[in-house]
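Risk register update: the risk of archive-format incompatibility is retired. Evidence:
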Amino acid sequence: TVAQPARGQQYATGPPRTTSAQRAPTVVPPLPLDESDAFVRKELSPLGWPAEWISQDDLARRAAVLIENGRRGEIPRRPIDFPKPVRRFATGERDGQIFEDPENARRFDPFLDLLERVSPGVLARVFEQIEPLIDQAFLELGTGPGARGALLEGIDGVLDAKIPMGPHRLVQPHVLFEYADESLESASALDKQLLR
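Archived output:
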């Protein structure tokens, strides 16, 4: 209902309009986590992410585990079924030693391009809409400072990562390659993913 002017007063150009800053934010409905997938999927749809990313069940719980893994410096593989690069990790030899291929990082360009196409403003709005549900999932995990705090810690960890220039020498004590430099091999899984 529009408020009427007091006696003797007139609106200069009609009733006052509510600005976007004055509008109340949309409130996430108090959904149980087990019933939240349709809502979360609808909120994620403007991001244009692949269907296989958002068609899974328990999206809020998966997001919480994803964020918590990132906060701990772990590779968040299990919660979301991310597609794998088409090309395999490549190596080369020089003076009888094994080095990583400098072009390995290009394997992830399609996924990075997909993420970079999302407007930060749109991403922030989507996060705000589903944050209460992710917080519920964090309560179930019983760990971390909640969705926002854990996300900020994870971002800080990525920004603070010191990534030395390659190519880096590798060794192959068993089936998998390892970094010959112990300081690189002992780095967190997420830091080593940034190296690749």
